[in-house]
Amino acid sequence: MIAAFETRLPKPWLAVGHSMGGCLTALVLARGEHRFAGAVLSAPMLGLQTAPTPPAVTRVLAQTLTLIGAGGASTPGSDAASFESNILTHDPRRYARNVGQIAAYPDLALGPPTWSWLAFAFAAIAELQRGPGVPKVDIPVTIVAAGEDRIIDNAGTRLVPAASLKAATSKPRARSTSAAGDRPDPRGVLARVRRAAGQIAPA
Fold this sequence. Notes:
By secondary structure, this protein is α/β, with parallel strands linked by helices. The protein has helices spanning 2-5, 20-30, 55-67, 92-104, 115-130, 159-165, 190-200, and strands at residues 14-18, 38-42, 141-146, 175-179. It has a single domain (2-200), classed as 3-Layer(aba) Sandwich (Rossmann fold), CATH 3.40.50.1820. The chain contains seven helices and four strands, in the order αβαβαααβαβα. The protein has a four-stranded parallel beta sheet with strand order 1-2-3-4, sandwiched between helices. Strand 3 (141-146), helix 6 and strand 4 form a beta-alpha-beta unit. The longest helix has 16 residues, at 115-130.
């Protein structure tokens, strides 16, 4: 897509990714993508909360089910039947708006995570945590985490800045910030994402 529109997109380019999109953005940068001037990752999936099952056990289960052809099955506990049971937002108006949008446009609904999706997520996280690519990222990277995230393990969100800061001192500073009291709905951390983007690429 970048190659198709590169000549028509004014620079500097800023990569912005939320949740799994943030993980994929980090992965692309770690694998050598160099056309962006900076990146802002909103609640990026750089760690997973899997309680009460330990992450290592969940990872093996996801890998096994994927290998035996059952990766398309949905993971348990994926659906929230009410505002009180949802883990994406603590704002009832935002929750009602999301429900209303899906009711009006069912095609926008996202299905629950599958075991193969989860296996990929664990593999991507492992590559970012232990692979050689992250310390080579030489652009400013800001991570905005949701302080009350119950899906993403925020301990993992500190790995990208930590790895970047261990790299050559001539490289731009990577940093992580937490939006206290927010859950991973992208609108909940939007103001911090905008501020971070403005610092990297001022209008």
